[in-house]
């Protein structure tokens, strides 16, 4: 094992399940860019020296971390969503988080494969279909379509939508099973014990709380039935080695501690087949058994890349996955079962797993019985796609639980988007259109210290935001953007270009051009969070479609706004939201 002078480690996982480490691809450093009289200067500070250059680097990639080199092809995944019911806010939240990260990486020049889909097998699906009097496949088709439609509604940019009823997926899972058999990781036995149909999870007697699962779900006693078992107990040491040598494998730290506690408590072999129902992937060579829904579901991450098929180019390119994002309720399956399955099959484990928290509403747990389920489709219809995206990404520290209220959403969107971002764009472009003959200012004079300070802030936005995106601190990325907009608003208030019109038109045009450049940079970097609105602003700024990725964010650089270019009369991008009377009354009652 080797370490850099900074002590950080970059893990390399091999198919032999040994853990090797190499030097980090990048040393620890911080970069600050300043604008002085129109010249960009970048200062990089390392542990031992300071280097300066006269041009800002147009780098490809994201900030490197111990678990990601910042440039390699990157697979990011949502969990595949279980089709027992229609989508809720938790599904929207996970999908949006992954979308923000995927968009940011693509705009940074990285090759990204973003996967989502639906988990369609299992006892719960079979029972739900039976209650409706329709075949399980028909039931799965109907509910899966709702999830696919939700992703479209939220403007999610996934590269593939996988369904576990897809024939190619089923073939891939069976190949995966056969690999486990080949490696002597599975044996035939019998199982009896507690099982939660709702969670699709086995529980030990010691895990039950007041006769229920830790999640609050009902459990039922499974009478003894034949079952294939995975030798999970043999992987305790290897899993502990993974967690200890790769402390960033599970995030945030509180979730890692949960996983460590569970594994240290001892692992039992896991039942991975059922004979009591038939809606599942048949076990190869034994049609009396169907696979446990979780081995079927987890394998989607590799089946979507062509694992075990004649075309494994994507598997070779994108695996191991860069990031699995899941809700904390399915942490055990992803942090314990999944890496153990992969180790047994001789496949590299993913680089990182991030488990986020749950949403409450007005301080209360969300449940059908309370009638307070949040429908993401209704949120979009009421407030708009980008407004919904912004609030869910900005309101909560990613990884923690969060509380939703209509009052909070309306206030935050109006403050940060309508009053600050939208108003900045509207008043800047209105002044340009009115006072510069409907064109980008062309009579731009020397840049004053105040102009350079604002442009320097914009020059550092990519570096600051990238650091947060690379560690999935999405809310901090949002904060960086919100604060940049606030600084631009302070600048325009202090410079007062409306007053300069009467005293110094050249200075007025310089201030307005500085604001347009600031807006260009902010709008490009805001795209992963509010893509439609950011592009609407870029349209009004006359930024070409092929100059909207992150190589173009250097202020006053190669892709600066062309002086003298004609602009259209500006239109508002973020209309103010109004709190509906019924939503206001609900918030008042709960408080």
What is the fold's blueprint, element by element?
Layout (H helix, E strand, L loop, with lengths): L9 E4 L5 E4 L7 E7 L2 E7 L4 E4 L20 E4 L3 E2 L6 H19 L4 E8 L3 H10 L3 H18 L6 E4 L3 H16 L3 E11 L4 E3 L16 E11 L5 H10 L4 E2 L1 H12 L5 E2 L1 E2 L7 E2 L2 E6 L1 H6 L1 H4 L9 H6 L4 E5 L3 H15 L7 E4 L2 E3 L2 E2 L10 H8 L1 H10 L7 E3 L1 H30 L13 H11 L1 H9 L4 H22 L1 H7 L1 H22 L4 H10 L40 H10 L1
Parallel strand pairs: 6-8, 6-18, 7-8, 8-9, 13-19, 18-19, 20-22
Antiparallel strand pairs: 1-2, 3-4, 4-5, 10-11, 10-12, 12-14, 15-17, 16-17, 20-21
Helix pairs in contact: 2-3, 5-6, 6-10, 11-12, 12-13, 13-16, 13-18, 14-16, 14-18, 15-16, 16-18, 17-18, 18-19
- Shape descriptor reads elongated
Helical region count?
20
Largest sheet: 7 strands, parallel
Terminal CA distance: 55 Å
Radius of gyration based on Cα positions = 27 Å
Mean pLDDT: 88
What is the number of beta strands?
22
As a percent range, the share of strand residues is: 15-25%
Structural class by secondary-structure content: alpha/beta
User: What oligomeric state is this?
Assistant: single chain
Low-confidence sequence ranges: 1-31, 36-57
Question: Approximately how much helix is present in the residues?
Answer: 40-55%
Task: Describe it.
By secondary structure, the chain is of the alpha/beta class. Strands 6, 7, 8, 9, 13, 18 and 19 form a seven-stranded parallel β-sheet that branches. A four-stranded antiparallel β-sheet has the order 11-10-12-14, with no helix packed on it. It has a three-stranded antiparallel β-sheet with strand order 3-4-5. A hairpin with a 2-residue loop joins strand 3 and strand 4 (39-45). Helix 16 (474-495) runs antiparallel to helix 18. The longest helix is centred in the C-terminal third of the chain and has 30 residues, at 406-435.
